[in-house]
Amino acid sequence: MQFRSIIRIVGLLLALFSVSMLAPALVALIYRDGAGVSFVTTFFFLFACGAICWWPNRRHKHELKARDGFLIVVLFWTVIGSAGSIPFLLSDNPNVSVTDAFFESFSALTTTGATVIVGLDDLPKAILFYRQFLQWFGGMGIIVLAVAILPVLGIGGMQLYRAEIPGPVKDSKMTPRIAETAKALWYIYLSLTIACALAFWLAGMTPFDAIGHSFSTIAIGGFSTHDTSMGYFDSYAINMITVIFLLISACNYSLHFAAFASGGIHPRYYWKDPEFRAFIFIQLLLFIVCFLVLLNHLTYNSVYDAFDQALFQTVSISTTAGFTTTGFSDWPLFLPVLLLFSSFIGGCAGSTGGGMKVIRVLLLTLQGARELKRLVHPRAVYTIKVGGTALSQRVVDAVWGFFSAYALVFVVCMLALIATGMEELSAFSAVAATLNNLGPGLGDVALHFGDVNEKAKWVLIVSMLFGRLEIFTLLILLTPTFWRS
């Protein structure tokens, strides 16, 4: 294990993260809200910490192995999540505890969107911007950004890329060099953010709200600058824009790259992808069910309102964004539970969405169908094909292993929450909301997590990290095999 090289890289990345504090400091200067001091102080502190880690180890530039890459990713998200809590601690508004500061920071960086802060409309603009900006950073993975713009790292970068980019197939690269791949991903990410911000602004948002909500929409984070989330704007146009960009962001970014690589939009790249087709089918099915149930229960006064709310909440919850326009937890109980379970599927692999990812659920479904066929014809040989390509048994085994680990982490976290005194429905939905990086839950966590006890919040922080790092990246560090030389 190249510990000194790892410390050097983490120091560089921490110094890079410190620069992000200047953006909310600038917002504080523009709006004169008095919150800039905490961000400037944090910038100097984190930059100094990064320099202390980098300087003694600056000459250690050994090639990293896969194990080193996993350790860097976990260390980085843990360190950055902790560092991100400092502005919340130094700020007078909001006045939060250490636990709440860590919870808010990790929730933002992991794009979970679960908040412990009430009274968002009264917060300084700089703090509001910072929360949104953290989500935008975490959405694509700040390590991919660092690999793209910091060639001084002195490594090929593939180890970091494999550990950071979500999805069951992590070895594929869209361009020959990993730095070029990371740059391509971020160009797409930035372009979508700008387009989303412009659309929100044209639909009636203020420039501040448009930029802030474009950050959390493209990151599929769910943070808002208002307590009532998207319901604050009460706009059909804004709801539809949110739905469109959430669906785009929940797709595999390699599909976006392929579609735009030749200089034009080619929808066939999307439709040829079996995961994309499965994703669209799931979205349509969920929307139809929600729409019909709302109509049957006369939940809204008009068909159009039912259509708008069903479409928005279906896409928002199932893609793990967690935006709300209404108290969807007050809908007929079947619908909130259905949408909560849909968040376990989440977005496509290689997207900014959470959950287990559509491709894994698709493979599990195909594997289940194969086992049913084997019961009827025990001696027959069946292969699992995705997009016309037969998958090896190793891939199928890996998906089953991921599903088993996911279920195990979920059960352990839920039992831990119940042990802290949380009631069963709230514990179940809280773990679902954090492990799937969703945000809102049911019961006591339907609106916010401010009333959750402190021990439970630390459990949920760990749950967020497991969800963001796709279970194995964090779980592998807990195995004795990982630490053996």
Describe this structure in words.
The chain has 485 residues and is an all-alpha fold. It is 63% helix and 1% strand. It is built from 23 helices and two strands. The protein has helices at residues 3-19, 22-31, 36-54, 66-83, 86-90, 98-109, 125-140, 142-149, 158-164, 178-202, 207-218, 236-249, 253-260, 268-271, 274-296, 303-318, 334-342, 358-376, 393-419, 424-435, 454-468, 472-475, 480-483; strands at residues 385-386, 389-390. Strands 1-2 form a two-stranded antiparallel sheet. Strand 1 and strand 2 form a beta hairpin. Helix 6 (98-109) runs parallel beside helix 21 and helix 12 (236-249) packs parallel to helix 16 (303-318). The protein is globular. The model is unreliable at 145-162 and 164-172 (pLDDT under 50). It is found in: Cell inner membrane. This is Trk system potassium uptake protein. It comes from Vibrio zhanjiangensis. The chain crosses the membrane at residues 12-31, 37-57, 69-90, 133-163, 184-203, 236-255, 276-295, 333-353, 398-419, 458-483. Keywords: Cell inner membrane, Cell membrane, Ion transport, Membrane, Potassium, Potassium transport, Transmembrane, Transmembrane helix, Transport.
Task: Give a concise summary.
The protein is built from 23 helices and 2 strands. The chain is mainly α. Helix 2 (22-31) packs antiparallel against helix 3 (36-54), helix 6 runs parallel beside helix 21 and helix 8 (142-149) crosses helix 10 (178-202).
